[in-house]
Amino acid sequence: MIAAVTDQEEAASDLLFQDIDIPAGSTVTCSVVVYYENRGNEFVNGPDLSYMNAPNQQARIDIMDPDAPPFNIGPGVLLNLFQTNPGDPPSLGYTTLDFDLSAFKGTTVRFRAAGVVTLSVLNFAIDDLKCTEITAASIPTLSEWGLIAMAGILGFVEFMVMRRRKATA
Of the segments 13-17, 24-28, 79-83, 151-155, which one has the largest average pLDDT value? Predict the structure, then answer.
């Protein structure tokens, strides 16, 4: 993903999302880089993500139900990954957020980044969203462990025989 940055001078609601398929039987871990600069020096979490409900100055990242309305902040939010709150510092340098989506195996979820501005300029950025799928490796059975052990023993015996032949030659 290419970096996305909000840079508005007037009241606005900005939203970006991408659907992510989580395969059944997998572990999926993700990361995203987050940055913000709030020139208003104040965060206010309004009742929704609308700039029409001032004051509302916030940035957030959520894992969503893909069937939920894009601006939903209620039951459509499956997991909140990041949110600015009143009292947070006015800026956050580039920070990596790591998160695990394994709880959503076998489904599709929506990664959503949203920013609302009604007080002053809020630059909110995300970059380098990436997810990695780790499939479960099969654990050898007891009989497979026996074969592995026997192969090791036979390899050692062959090494000893070759060594002995070299010594007598």
Answer: 79-83
